[in-house]
UniProtKB/TrEMBL annotation:
GO terms for cellular component: cytosol. SMART domains: rADc. SUPFAM superfamilies: S-adenosyl-L-methionine-dependent methyltransferases (SSF53335). This is Dimethyladenosine transferase (S-adenosylmethionine-6-N', N'-adenosyl(rRNA) dimethyltransferase) (16S rRNA dimethylase). Gene3D superfamilies: Ribosomal RNA adenine dimethylase-like, domain 2 (1.10.8.100), Vaccinia Virus protein VP39 (3.40.50.150). Pfam families: RrnaAD. S-adenosyl-L-methionine binds at M1, G20, E41, D72, N94. The lineage of its organism: Bacteria, Bacillati, Actinomycetota, Actinomycetes, Frankiales. Residues 2-179 form the Ribosomal RNA adenine methylase transferase N-terminal domain.
Length: 274
């Protein structure tokens, strides 16, 4: 946990968002350097115990920089953040592993103040989140994270450093927010194309995109309009190519002739990112 805190490189100008502080081992470290820590805990007894733990171990000045929020990180939005505290610019967290991907993508979507972060997740999830196109583990989480941020693996965390020892390995993911590769209003359509492409990842785009495009012909036409080989698989496409696919579909739906071809294709509804 000390390594995570050190690698997060937080300073007195940073407000750190920690999701799932649990017993507070990481919170204590973060309070050593951060200007403020907003710790979001869903479990009421743990949320109540955290300020007590911190007050018992740190000087009052440091304890005063902790702001505990009793909330579900999966629904966390700006309205849940403490008043009078600068909005968090850094996410530093040992995320609950079973919901790490939707937690990460969700806070990047709903909290635009987050500029960078370092999270600990299950090792396989770290590999998937940071995988480049063409990699065996590249998938929907990789593309969706690439919409929001540049990411990189920041090292593995072997089981024996934990007590009790978990039955999975852990990995760190560092990220820095980027300007999204397409306008925000296209995000749901891009993610719908991504979900379709990876729902059948061994299939070519002309087949895998049928549920999204409406038909095989429409999927082929959209891929060609986007400058993408319809015979390629989704795992070869970067986020920019998925943006071109989504833009092609938007354009086709807006055009009556193409809309006829695309009849029956479900429109992407704005929704949660994962
Ligand atoms: C330190 S994290 C995860 C630890 C470890 N990586 C794992 O997955 O087992 C565990 C903490 O996250 C909290 N937690 C779980 N789900 C949460 C959620 N949706 N929002 C905020 N906190 C959550 C739990 O109550 C617990 O205190």
């Amino acid at each position: 946990m000390r390594r995570l805190v050190r690698l997060a490189e937080v300073g007195p100008d940073d407000t750190v968002l920690e999701i799932g502080p649990g017993l507070g081992s990481m919170t204590l470290g973060l309070l050593g350097t951060a200007g403020a820590v907003v710790a979001v805990e869903v479990d009421p007894p743990l949320a109540a115990a955290l300020p007590v733990t911190v007050a018992a171990r740190l000087p009052a000045e440091a304890a005063a920089r902790l702001h505990v929020v009793l909330a579900d990180g999966l629904r966390l939005g700006p309205a849940d953040l403490p008043a009078g505290v600068p909005a968090p610019d850094v996410l530093a967290a040992n995320l609950p592993y079973n919901i790490a991907v939707p937690l990460l993508l969700g806070v990047l979507e709903r909290l635009p103040s987050l500029r960078r972060g370092l999270v600990m997740v299950q090792a396989e999830v770290a590999d998937r989140l940071t995988a480049p196109p063409g990699s065996r583990v590249y998938g929907a989480p990789s593309v969706k994270l690439a919409w929001y941020a540049r990411s990189r693996p920041a090292g593995g965390v072997p089981r024996p450093v934990f007590w009790p020892q978990p039955n999975v390995d852990s990995g760190l993911v560092a990220f820095t927010r980027r300007t999204p590769p397409a306008p925000a209003e296209l995000r749901a359509e891009v993610f719908a194309a991504v979900d379709a492409a990876f729902a059948q990842r061994r299939k070519t785009l002309r087949t895998a995109l049928v549920p999204w495009a409406g038909s095989r012909d429409a999927a082929t036409a959209l891929a060609e309009a986007a400058g993408v080989d319809p015979g390629a698989r989704g795992e070869t496409l970067d986020v920019e190519a998925f943006c071109r696919l989504a833009a092609a579909r938007r354009a086709a739906v807006a055009e009556p002739a193409a809309a006829t071809q695309l009849a029956g294709a479900p429109a992407a509804e704005p929704g949660p990112p994962d």
